[in-house]
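Chain A, query sequence.
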Amino acid sequence: SQAAWLQSIFGIASSIGRLSIGLLCVYLTKYMFLYQILILLMSAETIILWLFLGKYWISQVSYMLVYGMTSGAMISLQPVMIASIFGADRVATMTGIIFFSYTPGNLFGSSICGYIYDLTNSYTYAILYTSLAFFLGLLVTFSAFISNKDQAGSSPSGLSN
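Chain A, predicted structure.
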């Protein structure tokens, strides 16, 4: 019953995150920076709310609210960010490539976390592994931002990074 409530809270928060980031993007043009902030929030909330406080119901609810909003926002922000980096004419292709790059994590992430749990009989290291994956994603987007910084504003889409 509690797991169903947590999934419902996540779904509602994700919808709110998707809508609110869409409205926010009307006023902001620093999409890559915003994306990096979202990844940093996801990593921090995983460690703080789930690892340290995860045994409390209110922490689990808080985690689902924050994680739902940030993950929903990231999904909505990706096409805008892709257009600002690669141009509007390449959004479909690049979105497909980026979503395909999620495959290894989606395919093996749960099994790896399960294996870590089996070895340690604790979720602590699995949560740290997940947070590390978010942090590595932050490093990848930061390196893409640095390599693309000189080209900001020169994309065919007219959007600025």
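The radius of gyration is 17 Å. Residues 152-161 have pLDDT under 50 and may be disordered.
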